Amino acid sequence: MSTQADLDAFLSRLAQPLQFVPTMGGLHDGHGELIRRAAAHGPVLVSVFVNPLQFGPAEDFDRYPRSLETDLSLADRCGAAALWAPSVQMIYPDGACPSRNAADGLQQHLCGAGRPGHFDGVVTVVARLLHLVRPASLWLGEKDWQQLVILRRLVADLCIPVKVQGVATVREADGLAMSSRNRYLTPAERHQAATLPAALRAADATTPLDIIRSMLSAAGLEVEYVERVDPITLQPCGSETAISLLAAAVRCGTTRLIDHVFLMTRQPLVAIDGPAGAGKSTVTRAFAERMGLIYLDTGAMYRSVTWLVQKSGVDPTDAAAITPLLQSLDLQLRSLPCSGQQVLVNGEDVSEAIRSPEVTGLVSVVAAHRCVRQALTAQQKAMGAKGGLVAEGRDIGTAVFPDADLKVFLTATVGERARRRALDLEQRGFPVPERSELEAQIAERDRLDSTREEAPLVKAADAVELITDGMSIDAVIDALVEQFRSRVAEEVWPTPGD
Ligand code: PAF
After folding, report:
1. Residue whose CA is closest, atom 9 of ligand 1?
2. Distance (Å) from CA 29 to ligand 1 centroid
3. Which residue of 34, 120, 144 sits with most ligand 1 atoms within 8 Å of its CB, as the best mutation to test the pocket?
4. Which among 368, 347, 391 is positioned nearest to 454, based on CA atoms?
5. Strand partners, 23
6. N- to C-terminal Cα separation, the chain
7. Burial of residue 158, with CB atoms counted within 10 A of its CB: 0-12 exposed, 13-18 middle, 19 or more buried
8. In a 10 Å sphere around its CB, with 0-12 CB exposed, 13-18 middle and 19+ buried, how is residue 116 labelled?
9. What is the pLDDT of residues 198-243, one digit of tens each?
10. Which domains does the chain have, with CATH numbers?
11. I need a labelling partner for 271 at 20 to 30 A (CA). Which of 11, 124, 163, 182 fits?
């Protein structure tokens, strides 16, 4: 279909949320994977539109593959509900002219530097396509990582109600990333082109970029850029960045090829901080399970020490009396099947006991001692050294994992937290105080947590704030998954089960 009427008729028949895969045609198995992944979530519309705005004057607009018949059969085979090939007139009724300067900082490096105006063209066409199609989800390949980051920014900046979903790069058997432009390559060039992924994959966090440039040049590839950047800001970075993007563009004959790898000194780390009663544990545990991350409940660790202090009859305000308890402390957190967690203190199962109102009442006093924080922070850092973990607490993004890949400050109003606390106490069979008393306790806890000298509860400067009043638990978990996915590529940490 190609006309506005066709599109409108298709959209009006939809019973499920629409999944949109915009393409420029020349479909290959990389697009096929996008379509298959999208089709698992609802009917898929594939658009084919060779966007004149994103080609420079000396680029390959005229010879860009146009193969509508083959595209149609690939889209159909992969489960698309329809293919839409609009005319230039339909997308640009007033003439093709880029309308927006795509997020400046994001196009200074990589392809943005060598293709001036390219991302303005991409942003303009995608904004127009989204306006016409109004999908629930927009599916894009991670192969064009810079494009994905820029389009995510477009959607966020303009508050476009669409979920952006990235899909890992699909590769040929020899590692070459699938691209519509691969069909320009002669057999000899095709062989040469495989050096691009090979050189990138051979690199690690310490490899000088010049070595990679030399490997590419030695294979007869003309290097446009080899850069290492932070995957979110797209600004140059070094090995201090735990997960970085090593990206390159080369010319193989007359064909421009791009590729990248993610260099990792550890697996992803997520920090979730926030005040008491914001529902952190429930959503963090579910988020960890959904993403296949280890869940670290640091609140349970502070509660465990508080329980031990109480049980030992030690004055909770006396740091010197607590120190020996810490020296002999054996604190273990074990995940149980069905989202549970077992907490062991010196071999004793305290999972339930640490949730008592007595422990709740004392935990911020005990957790304020420098000796307690230092002992538990050291244990937490050791647990998270390899990454692959989401930690939840009050100082994770500031003191424990300041280099976390995603930091979230999860909060809710005092009234909402008191309501949740009452429900929790009731479910656990503890007496439920008056609502006003609970609110006062929570406000006092906030005051203690955020004014203590050692690692006070504060929102990290680079944390995303999520105020959960009125949000269902599932909506909060979905928001966490979306934040995680916008920072950590599928290629770095695939979603389990996808
Ligand atoms: O990646 C592409 O094929 C294009 O840049 C896109 C997103 C379809 C916009 O023309």
Report:
1. 122
2. 16
3. 144
4. 368
5. 48
6. 30
7. exposed
8. exposed
9. 999 999 999 999 999 999 999 999 999 999 999 999 999 998 899 9
10. 4-167 (3.40.50.620), 180-264 (3.30.1300.10), 269-485 (3.40.50.300)
11. 163
